[in-house]
Amino acid sequence: MRIAVVGAGGVGGYFGGRLAQADHDVTFVARGEHLKAMLQEGLRVESINGDFAVSSVQATDNPDDIGAVDLVIIGVKAWQIAETAARLSPMLGLDTLVLPLQNGLEASSQLAAALGPQSVLGGLCAIYSFITAPGCVRHMGIDPSVTFGALQLSQAGRLAEVQAALRQAGITANIASDIRVPLWEKFLVLRWGVVGAVSRVPAGVLRRLPQARDMIDQASHEVLAVAKTQGIDMPADALPRSSALLNSLPAGATTSLQRDVMEGRPSELDAQAGALVRLGEQVGVATPLHAFIYHSLLPMEMQARGEIGGAN
């Protein structure tokens, strides 16, 4: 399968690396020192499931160099979707599928609005991974998996092809009959990262401190309340499984949202907290904890994006 991976960070680097290792024709769209290192030295992945390397990497910062592919995997941050969508057209043929793996609920709809609904799948991934140095990705936790589903009936016949390519690469790949359900399930899981972003402590502290666990529980119930208004049939064990995942993480684990907020970089605050506040307002469901976290961190987010100055 001919595959373009847009964004070669913790998500794109890991899954794209596995696909390249399995002899799929993979080209990464990356930038800066990470791109330079991959082209010169290859891609290294340090993984709890076994380290591996792709010695000869196809990568570019210009999608025009790639041409039409069978599958585009979107591995950028949620806040980069609009910018990314504007650059995808050179890679899109008549039968190209676009698979977003962002946190949050809105990536697929944003891509479909920009590209047309016929090519965009719904999707998400599970993995705890990040760039540790140019050309190197570290997978530290969670058994990696990709879950995806059709948003248009015309896409259904090609899902098995995507699943086969992922499984050939040793990636757990699940096809969802209603992709909205696993998207909301992951959204629920990410509440520990939202609470972690404002408290600035890792998973070990969040699960040990009763007050922090109470905040996670409140945030989770707000998610479930809004999901219900969207007609999402959440599994009865969604909340216990979310708690079990938090308990299984390394004590020092943090989410990309936490790390970006703490290091003063643009983050997925809007996609992970702001989105629920907006949906709650639309359907008349109160989300006071999410509103507090979102509004508390918004000035820092605006500073990180250069929208306000530090003293203005």
State the gist of this model:
This protein has 312 residues and is α/β, with parallel strands linked by helices.
Record keyword descriptors for this entry.
312 residues; five-stranded parallel sheet; N-(1-d-carboxylethyl)-l-norvaline Dehydrogenase, domain 2; 10 strands; 2 domains; 13 helices; five-stranded mixed sheet; alpha/beta; globular; Rossmann fold; 45% helix; single chain
Number of domains: 2
For the record, the CATH architecture of the largest domain stands as 3-Layer(aba) Sandwich
Shape: globular
Spatial sequence of strands, sheet with the most strands? 5-2-1-6-7
Number of helical stretches of at least 4 residues? 13
Give helix and strand order, one letter per element, not per position: EHEHEEEEHEHEEHEHHHHHHHH
Structural class: alpha/beta
Description:
The chain is of the alpha/beta class and 312 residues long. It folds into 2 domains: 176 residues, 3-Layer(aba) Sandwich (Rossmann fold); 122 residues, Orthogonal Bundle (N-(1-d-carboxylethyl)-l-norvaline Dehydrogenase, domain 2). Helices cover 45% and strands 21% of the residues. It contains 13 helices and 10 strands. It has a 5-stranded parallel β-sheet with strand order 5-2-1-6-7. Strands 3, 4, 8, 9 and 10 form a 5-stranded mixed β-sheet that branches. Strand 9, helix 5 and strand 10 form a beta-alpha-beta unit. Helix 7 runs parallel beside helix 11. The model has no long low-confidence stretch (mean pLDDT 94).
